[in-house]
Write a structure and sequence with these properties.
Strand content: 15-25%
Strand order of the largest sheet: 2-1-5-4-3-6-7
Distance between the termini: 46 Å
Oligomer: single chain
Helix content: 25-40%
Number of strands: 27
Radius of gyration: 26 Å
Length: 706
Amino acid sequence: MTSYTLPAGFDPVTLEVIRMRLDSIVEEMGIAMIRSSGSPVITEAGDFNTALFDPTGRIYAYSDYVQFHIGSGSVAVQNLVKAIEGEPLAPGDAFICNDPHTAGASHPPDTNVISPIFHGEELIGWAQSQAHLVDVGGMTPGGFAPGAHDCYAEALRLPPGVKIFERGEPVEWVRRILLNNVRVPVLYWNDVRSLVASNNTGIRRLLSTIQEFGLDKFREYSKLSFQLAEQVVRDRIRAIPDGTYTAEEWTEHNGHVDELYRVACTMTKRDDQITFDFSGSSEQTDGFVNCSYGALVGSVATAVVPILAWDVPFNEGVMTAFDIVAEPGSIVNPRPPAPISNGHLTTGARVSRVVTKLMNDACRGSADDTVRDRTQGVWADSWTGGISAGTTDDGDYFVLFNMDGGGMGAGAQPDRDGLDCAGMMTQVNNMLPDVEMNEMLYPVLYLWKQLDTSSAGHGAHRGGLGLRFAWTLHGAQEVTQTVFAPTAQVVADGYGGGLPGGGSGHEVWRGTDVARLFADGVVPTPDTLAPADRELLAINQQSVSVRAGDVFVQWIAGGGGYGDPLLRRTELVAADVRDGYVTVETAERAYGVIVADGIVDEDATRRTRASLYEQRLGGTPARPVSDGSSAPRRDSEGWYVPASGARLGTADDWRGAARKATYVAAERLADYGVRVRPRANVLIDEYYSPSCGTLLEASVRVESHG
């Protein structure tokens, strides 16, 4: 890639020391929050962010815990600056906000605390900490409200400018209002204090850094860091062919009705600038899947950053190379009273998926090998949620927001399989909680927690597997359950011939014999349990009763594959069979590999793969396939298939020259052992090279809006 020369008078060592110091400060802020919080959502799962901003709200440095808070944190600081313009400020002040509509929060539980930073009497920046608080009031415990028809039912809404600390002391009347409106006031207030402690840590460390280098030098080098980050990203954008690219995704079920809502995006690339235009997306709905503007910005940024800025220190410079357009009143930029409590994990996740698809389409045409290799299978990006609330046998009220919901699979990469249980692209540093920690803090007993072999998208490189787990109550007689499974019907695409991944969902196994099995010394498993009924829950549902003796079961979506499955190395398929990632039947159907006793039958595999190529074309291929990529590439003569050299014409879009077959997605993927909730109008379009039979693309498509 391009090298850069510093302007005269700047020292590269000082530049790097200041840059690394800022990164260290925001990381230390996160450590302070973890050590002072009592919530497993923060201490175990890392569902928070910390950042430093300049006085106008430009990002100095951002911690790497939850990436899409880049948007919600930035919008929160910028809107606070506007809201309190002209009001007096002092060291020790802190402001709290959580309203998606006015403060930019991704959803109400993600609460911001923002503190001014003074050097002498001069305001020089802001320390910002944001975390998911376990309860924020509203109609359902935990802050996710599938039944809400407006934002007023979801939570206590805190706009920009609500002062929670003044000169280092709590604002007592504000504290009383907050604690009167939440279900777990002690935990809530302790988490607010941990956010303040995080900010105080950042303020002390930043002022120490400025004292060491001087305020003028700090500002000069920070400005240079912005410029260099922007320059790197713009140079990589230049390596992408100019053009207009379009893609769409679909949000499933708004909490009230099982409909699909369109997330459309047109990406225009000109020279060193990209514009993402979401015009044409569905209008806002009265369900909780609307995506706040802050979450939209964060979802776009955290799809772009790992593709174009994977090695660039994150600051404001990274954000300046792309613009975002979204119509007010749409599902990606709603107005009050639109409910919004799960928009970031549903529609926001669809935004990151659609941006990934657009970048795949654009990067594949680059002449730069590094940029072209940033293509990938689409990540599942499905936070499959379960929130349990009730009273223990000891009489204590609890709310369990189970962070195991982050265990979805990543998309496969050009040179390796996708990561299992990787988290969302927008929050890859979330962690899964320890089973023992959840069991210690809450009245649940896990029965299994394992990889879901029905979730991964097959390919030359396999998509990451999602998680599946089950628990039964232990120490409580009944809980009320809220669930959401955003990727159940419209699953994550593969890339370059890789197949889509599997979906997510929940069941309650009613009236099981789990107690008898334990009494008999038998480990409860899916095979040994005998439920009276298996109740498949809706994609989004609240007020579900789970009682003692029931078993709550959850499975989470997997990532899309990369490349034609018939190009996967046979020894990798055999290893997958031995390790239990795929069955013998799936190895044959999806990969054309015959495995017996863990060993590949090479002769039978050659015959099977030849037969599958013939089935794709309805006859013998004209060209043989060798090792190589199945993703179409472009040279001076047009499009071609690297695995065979077969040509695909000179048109702008190679698909017109391909052989196309269309299937119902759930039925087609079931043939390969992949689980997706059926919906008749969710289809898979498969494109094959007419010369060699290579699978070039397998993309999910919704035939209509029904």
